[in-house]
Design goal:
3 helices; 21% strand; 2 domains; 6-stranded mixed sheet
């Protein structure tokens, strides 16, 4: 049971690490390009280029900060506990799909089954939190019945 949670947790961690790596690479590339940009007689062109590189650095820094927040949220999850009600880190099997309540990381596959990693703050995450097996809820015109919680 906790093996499935561990696999899904690792996939979410990989997702966050890839986002962090991409943001860091973007920052490094923008800073390198800024260093290589030499001032020419066309001063405005130089200043515009530097401003664009600074904007790119700022955008990548924001993405890196968001990825760090996701990593903090993941690190708060315990994969070896089991609960009868849905909480952060729960794997939820419903009649309309399987969910992993952790972070918004999209579609995951483990043991040949598809899961959707969702944030507890997402609309469906808010609906799921605190529910138990056999509970039901509706969201966006779909009825969900909780079959099991791992």
């Amino acid at each position: 049971m906790s093996k499935l949670k561990e696999v899904l947790f690792r996939q979410c961690l990989d997702y966050v690490q890839k986002r962090m790596d991409a943001a860091q690479q973007g920052i490094d590339e923008a800073q390198q390009a800024s260093k290589e940009d030499t001032k020419s007689s066309a001063g405005d062109k130089y200043e515009t280029g530097r401003a664009m590189m600074q904007q790119e650095t700022d955008r990548n820094m924001a993405q890196l900060n968001e990825a760090n927040k996701l990593k903090v949220a993941l690190n708060a999850i315990t994969t070896n506990l089991s609960s009868k009600q849905i909480e952060n880190g729960s794997v939820v099997v419903t009649n309309n799909g399987n969910f992993y309540l952790a972070i918004s990381a999209g579609a995951l596959v483990a043991d040949g089954e598809s899961y959707v990693a969702i944030s507890p703050a997402s609309p469906i995450g808010l609906k799921l939190k605190g529910l138990k097996a056999n509970d039901q809820f509706a969201l966006n015109g779909k009825d969900y019945k909780i079959i099991s919680i791992l």
